[in-house]
Queue: 3 jobs
Job 1
Amino acid sequence: MATLQDPLELSAPATSRGTLAHMRATLRRNWLHVLLLPLLALWASPLVWIVVTSLKTRVEVFDPNAGFLPAIAQWSNYPAAMAVAPFGTYLVNSVLVTGGILICELVTITLAAYAFARLSFPGKNILFTLFLLQIMFPIYATFLTNFVTVRELGILNSLPALIVPFVASGYGTFMLRQAFRQVPTELADAARLDGCGHLGILWHVYLPLVKPTLVAFSIIAVVTHWNDYMWPLLVTNSESVRTLPIGLGLLAKSDSGADWTRLMAATVVVVSPLLLFFVIFQRRFVDSFMHAGLK
Amino acid sequence: MSVNSTFSHISRRGVLVGGAAAAVAGLSGGRAFASDKVKLQFMYPVGVSGDINRLVTAMISQFNAAHEKIEVEAIYAGSYDNTEQKVITALGVGDPPATWLPINSALQTFLGLDALADITAKAKADDIYQDFLPGFLETCISDGKLYGLPFQPSTPVLYLNKDALKAAGITKAPVTWTELLDVAKALTIRENGELKRWGLTIGGGWHDWIFECYCRQNALVPWTKDKVLFDKPEAVDALEFWVKMVQAGVMPPASTWEGSANDFMAGRTAMLYHSTGSLTNLRKSSPFEVDVAFMPKNKTFGACQGGGPIMIARKQTDAQIEASWTFARWMTSTQVQSQWSRDTGYLAVRKSAWETPEMKAYLEKVPQARVALEQAAYAGAFLQVPGYHKVREYLKSALDRTLAGSVKPDVALKEAADNSNREIQRLLRRRS
């Protein structure tokens, strides 16, 4: 930090030494901010652009002579974007589908990971390899078989069709199995002596200790499935069971260039729930990653 | 996998309403046939702007209100590619939708899947062959048989920034390739060697479509039903002209479809090859006056069509095919087409639609819309070969690499033609 402070020091008149010293102290305490503020600006710039563009007129978006901010905020872009599709229904569906997938996944990966980490049974290694293989298949490769399965279950064009193919996760199982293996067996043995069964051990010993991993996996799962586009498009037909990305697609996927102002207005609507969710639980997320890092 | 569903049906509507298909699908028959209405599905893409969804939905409710015995369900299916995937997936499990709207290039793909109902006889008994613009109808014909009704055709046109032309003292749009190059030179602005405005941009991503137009302007249709002819001298000559424009510094060697439209609106390119489907968007979003012109000619004027027809599934009962026909016929009727064309910028497919009073008033107000119609007289179908997705990628890669200067035009096109023909042969062998 010396290079940053020296010029200040040299150019300062003697009388303001006190304030300078104060500034120096502040800088020393908060030097990380100097580094992080530009990064913050970089990270936030697309979001700012989205919001600003959502309030412009169509001409303003590309007119180099127009300023960065809209001359008059066009709030009407929002109702105009919302009128393209029933976004309210889409929002509810997105929440139900993403939430449903997350809950199912957490249950299945916890149980599977426990089995792979702590039980021994015949074929365990082969089975685990198969789980890992599942991670390697791109999702598109399994679309047709999944489609056939969903159709035979008779749930095409319904919300369960959007959830069922994703109730298990090879990736999550792998992630959680690694975390479980970090937990000392002595803790589990102690719990067993106290009379806990498998589920009891899982609930009282393992899960509290791997919370950071669970949170990390949840974030990944939510973001992935919140943004799913192709699968919902494939298995749903009615607007009553479709999700937000399909609504966005209506504005973005066009021959004629995207309809930027309305697309950005709709984007604001689509990303705000996730953003809000993250802001509210920010401390918890960050904490859990810190813990995960320490391990 | 004969598991009975234990999941409650959340959707109120049943899916896959095709008659024979419904039995296979294991839907409770009573629900699908509760009324004596014929139920049809119509899968459509959104190609132009967000409002298409609402327009189509409104058209469908109008149709349903007017037809007691038929109920059509409109299903938005993403882009053209997404729609094709969705339909092919449904075909794969034997439950195709009754009707759908693919891009016209997909004709051979669907014929290869034996998916299309032959509607030649129905069309001949009707006024289809008389009233439809022949260039549009041709996009649905293979071996003399008709497999769909054109619904939303488009062609590339040349968009001009009228203010920029005026500032450069140019009074009329370029008519020949030579003029195009001259005008592009005059419109390109460089300050101290730094580029401020391109003279011309060819919308990337679909530049293979525009390239076919250039081939047709050289009097070459660069494909037949079972092979491509990219290596013909006419095609090489067209690409050499593109290279010349890039080397003259008036045209960027690469662009994207949406990016090029954005560049035009922002004044970073003075002329632009883009779809007629973009007319409304470009007109409404540009801070200057937009003019539209024919794509300049070389040996002749030439264009080829994007956009799509309504196709009807073969694998359904006669009653359903009849109902599908009624629907396709209604969607392409004079009044509906006139309205649709004015709302979207797509070209109306019927001669009579262009003669309606509403259309005449519209052309009075937006004379640019007429250009595309007149150019359509020179337009044919676009790359109707099996496996056109892959063929397009081969061609686009050849164009990109040539414009980037890494390979000579004739070598690149020869390679693209060889790769494409090998792929087409592979598909044809698998089919027979």
Job 2
Amino acid sequence: MISAHPTNDQVRGPPSGLSAVGISKRFGGVKALTEVDLSIRPGEVHGLVGENGAGKSTLIRILSGGLKPDEGSVQLDGISRSYSSPADSRKDGVVTIFQELAIVPELTVAENIVLGAEPSFDRFGLTLSRHRANLIAESVLRRLRGDAIDPRRRAGTLSVAERQLVEIGRAIALDAQFFIMDEPTASLSPRESNALLDVVRKLRSEGKAILFVSHHLDEVLEISDRVTVLRGGRAVTTLPAKAATSEQLIELMIGRPMETLYPPRLPCSGPPVLRVRNLSRPPSFEDISFDLHRGEILGFAGLVGAGRTEIMRAIFGLEPPHRGTIELDGKTVAFRSPRQAVRAGLAFVSEDRKGDGLVAQLSGRENLVLTAAAEGGSGTVVRRASIRVLSEKIRQQLHIRGSLDLPVAGLSGGNQQKVVIGKWLLGHPRIMIFDEPTRGIDVGAKAEVYRTIQKASQDGASILLVSSELSELIHVAHRILVISGGRITAEMSSDDFDEKEILKAAFAAHLSSAATEAELRA
Amino acid sequence: MSAQDRVDMAKPEVTTRDHGAGVGRSLLWLQNAGLPIALVVLVLFFSIRSDLFLTVQNLRNVGLQAAALAAVSCGQTIVILTSGLDLSVGATVALVSVVSALAINHFGMAAGILCGIMTGAVIGVINGILITWFRVFPFIATLAMMSVLSGLALSISGGTPITGLPPEFTSLAYTRVGGVPLPLIVSVTVLVLVFLFLHYLRLGRHMYAVGGNRQAAILSGLNVSAITVTAYAMCSLCAAVGAIILSARVGSGQPSLGGSLPLESVAAVVLGGVSLFGGRGSIFQVAVGVAFVSILSNGLNLLNVSSYTQMMIVGGTLIVAVTFDQRFVARS
Amino acid sequence: MIMTKFCQTAAVLTIALFAGAGHTIAAEKLGASLPLTQGPFFTAQIYGMTEEAKKLGYDLVVLDAGGYGKVDKQVSDVENLLAQKVKAVLLNPADPTSFVGVLNDAKSNHVPVVGAGMPFAGTDGSVSPSHCEIGKALAEGAKALLPNGGQLAALVGPAAGFWANERWRCFKEQIANTKIQIVAEQASEPDAAVGLSIATDILQRFPTVQVLYGADDTVGVGAARAVQANSLCGKVKVLTAVLGDTTEELMKAGCMDYVVALQVVEVGRRSVDMADKLIKGGKLEAKDVVIPVVPVTPKNLSSIDLSTIRPPAH
């Protein structure tokens, strides 16, 4: 089957490279992919974008052999291949670098690079020649400009970026031709991301083919030659990256003109509800003081590791502060456990949905009523009927897609996050803490999360919003506090939000020279 | 939704985990040096409390008593490195003891010992197949096998010890080479072989790969099932060596031999810093763990601590060791 | 914080432990190695040994292996006793055949070994009830309870227990030509709870069984409890060896019908006497001393002298 929409594929004659041809895949009654065509050619970086649930991961798994398609086929240079596992496709030179990195921490860098194809002293391949393994690793890493990594180092001591390099190195040692990279920059710092993009370019210049899957559209546009957009399991289009903009991609991903991602800010002027004074827990944070008003959305900006999450955890009773006071409605409180905080009307939507927010094996419904504060979930007997009514209400309110009867692990990231939020909303909290609530979820779900936050604040809840996406804070919050090195370095209200000023304040703790400080003060 | 914002605001190149890393490092240090220090303290303690402890005869006893545990712990180490567990080592020892005793009586010593070792290998392969092909959790598979094997040992032997073994077999346990008991020499040999295996053979490194990151092992085209089966086979082989040592010591085939070995071997391995989560640990540390468990038991005997109290102490030690393991994993 | 506290506690504990160091024992030591120290038999034996050792001025060290399944541990125990330079070893072996090697060690160290509770090869002497005699006495009991024959089910004790096998073997020999029919025999750990569940199952399966045999008073008590729970006291008779407190109570309640009492305290005492003699180089009158058994029934219970059978009640 040939692509239904015009792409460059047909023009070039006999297909070369790795292609998905007319691939369809169902899971139960849900169609995850419908007649998807995609090809990765030698010497090209092919971007793949789409909302969560659009079918990206299903497509990756099929291309890498982790799943078998119901219809269509995976072809290598025009010949149908039937892979039974990622290890199997690897033999054809197709290597997938998953987000969950495949590094053995106790083995050395070199041993990781040659894993499964170790050089040997003897004819039967029983022994391991560390010397030759180190030589191979050295030459591979040099090619990737990662020569700073000592092949003798234990892989467990490497940073995420270095581990990624080692994994790419392993593929190169195997002489892989096709690289499928799933969100490779998701947990990298800017400098590391740029270094990785350089590596990708290097691979391309050596004639390798790369499928680059990412949420970061700017990155995708920067690195790719062509970009394919997936929506609802279909490959909507494949277009040259040069001609595309990220707005265009977003519109293609969500299938309609880009609505305003952020709802209009509504005014707020309530009395103070939460009063925090001199809260300290060195070395995480010190002397944190602020007021939170009724219905207010108070943003916390700062670098990762600046101490914002720790402040929230201290307020919520997870890690009690060493000094300082917290007043709730004029009364001093000191929560020693989250349970006490929840009873007092606090809620915490954490960044780590799987770790903190959800019990993956329980159904969406059961997760919704998990907090003691939720009506229908309190008491010892679980009342199924009232759970049903309540969860249906929440589902409609938050537009949760997918079944609430199945384990939440099966829902998309955005919908999982909505279940977490819904769980707390059921308890009608007075103060809600959101810690990176939109990390790793797609555009559509983000918009809904923003609307939900705003709805909650309109209903009288006060919000503490920690986010590393500056535009998110600027558009949603009423006021922003900037944290740097565990201290508040700036405060701004919505009238004078300024991206540059916020950034300066965020880096304040890291700029040590007196000159810079003087400059900043002036 | 601007990727640029995220990039700007994300983690700069400053280390923010210094504090945590420091704690992690001291824990790592404690992992590596903690046990040898504890061992030295233990030895000091017993030598002060009992003037018999540091006598040649007693030290020889410790070596003799540690021999079987050392062999079994070597095997347990391999299995735990692949993030498995073998609770059937004790029952394997019992069955191998009975089988080899019967075989020695029928076919002579060399053939009999070989028979016992082969029995061990077969048991290990069965364990491995249950865990890989039938996907039974190692804990359950080997727990069930423990029951099966000890039932088998009892029914083959009719519940009574197999006696009438030639004196040259029994004397194996009491032979000394240069003053060192032969069983200890055998165990140290096993230990060295396991070390060579784990460090210099590809298959040995693959044990670390399977336990350290199963996904990585699969993606690198390793035959994880075969590796796992080999690990269990080697474990039972080591247990069989332990069984021969113990059988020679008690001069008979005992269907109830080795009852405390599952606990003691896991204790020695975990004390030796091998992570129960797999992929991390060294066999020489395990040797220190074995020494610790054996000296603890010997010293407590010298101090006339009742066996029931000893059981509590060994259990408590295991809990302390696992606590350190958990903390270490949580930090790293 | 927790770690600091932990370290402090550990430090205090260590100091406390080291503080008591360095004490020396003046008296000569006797070592005893037993497979277990629980149950009426062993507690009575230890009582007898301790009393007699005290009387003769010895310091008695008792090591227990922690169960019948731990023969290797018991072998180590004996080695440890030898390392402690005891003057003699009193050994009640879980399995006598397992001690050949270590007994040679004892011999080369010139430490006499007394079989305490069991005669076996390699010892310098033994004091014991004859387990075969116990089996025969139990057979006499069975004949008394079933004069016209009938069905008997047996709880034969630990599978690896030498004494249990020996009793059962001689019991069977003795009833071979009678009309007593054995409908079931089941091995188990010497534990009353295990005995109870096995006996309950036997009573379910063989409603016509008339006598339950319990190899000692752990499984024997279990059997009697099962009979009691099914309100069958008097209808299903229980036959066992070793007379402990519970056995006596059950006999008074009419649920225990024939007990071959062992003079366990006497076994303990006499084994220490024998060790004393061997240490002093005295000549033994007999190498293997057999302490006779005492059949006890509800009728003669009140007239039995218990001082040689079990420690006085507290």
Job 3
Amino acid sequence: MNWVGAVVQGVLVGGWYALAACGLSLTFGIMRLVNIAHGDLAVCGAYLTLVLSSALGLPVGYTLPLVLPIAFAIGVALHLLLFGRALRGGPLAPVLVTFGLSVMIENLLVAGLSADPRSLDAGRLALAGVRVTAFGSVITLSWLRIAGFLTALAVLGGLHLLLARTSFGRLVRATSDDLDTARLVGVRVRPVFATVAGIAVATAALAGVFLGMTATFDPYAGGLSLIFAFEAVVIGGLGSLWGTLLGGVTIGLVQQLAAQWDVQYTVLAVHLLFFAVLAVRPQGFFPASEPEAA
Amino acid sequence: METHPSRRAFLGVLGTAALTGCSGGLKESSGGTGGTIRIGYVSPRTGALAVFGESDDYVVGTVREAVRKGLTVGGRSYPVEIVTKDTQSSAARAAEVAAELIQRDAVDIVLCTSTPDTTNPVSDQCEAAGVPCLATICPWEIWAGGRGPFTYSYLYFVGSREETDVFAGLWRRLGGDHVVGGLWPNDVDGEVYRRFVTPKVKELGWRLADSGAYADGSTDYSSIISAFVKSDVDILQATPIPPDWVTFWRQAHQNRFRPKMVCVAKAMLFPSVAATLGPLAEGIVSPVWWSPSFPYKSSLDGTSARDLAQGYRTATGRQWTPPMGFNHGLFEIAVAALRASGDPKDKKAVAAAIGRQKGEAVSGRYDFTAGPMKNVSQAPDLLGQWRANGSGGHDLVIVDNSLEPAIPLQGDLRPL
């Protein structure tokens, strides 16, 4: 592939990483919750879509109005039952609880739905590509990747507006800034956090749907998604949504550019970048220094 | 295995590390009833390789039924007990459960199956402990490479060099010159194909475009696909793991890469993968080491290959899988060797008896006396092409039987 093509593909793939990572960024930035099961919840979203679309005989796209509210409800329930308690149990408890949740989800999925690799059939569009000429070179782009990137932009933009412009966003920011003071002035923290957890799981499910359409998923696919999502969050800056987008795009770019040299080093290159960021600028490129950035 | 679901639930709660001790304890532990023949069976049932082990419950069940009355060896009658272990798709875990079988369950013979990650560590454990071991579903070059000499461990399976030759024969049927694209990941199978196919393509005087050793589990193949398009690849030779192949092939369509012939080892062996691909599976060529159309039957109870596959379908509602035949064959060879040993409790005699075995199992003919090397019986490798079967699914149609003409052809090769 030419360099122009690599850059364009890298940005598009990066959009998916950002989508997978934004829920993680949200829960960490607001609740200080590192959700190890985030990748597995994304895979659950893909399975939920698969089950619903085959049970109702609907195309994948039409099940989203059902999948996203269900995922949101699951997120709220998880917070009320697990995360909320875990957060009160010290810094290590959430990590252990979500790790246990991750192992449980994987094994329940294997037991219930077998280890077969699955994918979501998004119809003809999913297999179509478009040829464009840019800077004198021809690039083939998949519509699905373009749609994934635009969705990531829309989700991140929407979340930004929600946090920066609405009264709910003000509550969230206040709680995230100073939990105790927020409580003192009458903010009911539990519903706020539960809503945030719901939104995070819904975005994870959406990322899972795109994973299912562009690639395949099996009960163990969540682990790898989590690693890249986590790296996107750290590279972009902990807790910053636009930083997460940038982190995702950076990972996509590094992968594609390393592949120009030798595909063997694509994964290694991302991990090296992650390591370098941690060593040189541990707060990431765009840390959430201002509460507005949430 | 009766304890399976409960053990799996256990896993979910406890995590993996703490379980090592418990899982053995959950099974019936070995009493000192010297008279029972114990057969250990190691396979991946959970994890990334679970698709290989999905038919195990059924296969082991039919074998248990067939040997329910026990075996008579040298005039004495022995009850038979089969102890199964799950590797969780990890080589380290495979070595661990093999050691458990040898030390705690005191098995008389160990059978192991499915990918080098299972066969090699288990064979090593048995070789070191002096316990007879029979392995399958790992190309013999990979099993034998850099290890040995073998006294107690044996392998019954196809070879990669032969498979490469059969594929090359198929490519030549297209006529003219071609560019072969090799999609070979950074794992043992990928490396072995790279080693055998690269000189083969050179020998044919064609060009080769190597994907480079990408990591298993990659979700984006756009750079590899555009490199293939740029080098005008018209024959694709791939050995990806199943999920990666589905991802690659869909992205190949998205990026308008359409070679004339697509040969996929490993991933396209399984009907479940063809089902995931749907219409995209049409015309893909895959090796066939076993299929229900093989004209063989079980030496234990006379069940034909077709009935074995049909029985699985009736019992589980799922389509047959290629490992079924070989896993069943493994038990048949083990029983034949135990019978021929004169004393099933004499490990040296049993191991030596495997080396003399020659006969027919539901998986096909085996012959340990004429292998490509000592302790190996090479199985023939056929090629099949996935075709729509009219009822929405795909069937693997045998299009090349040059290595075993006794197995009938089912159709002609069709270009993609």
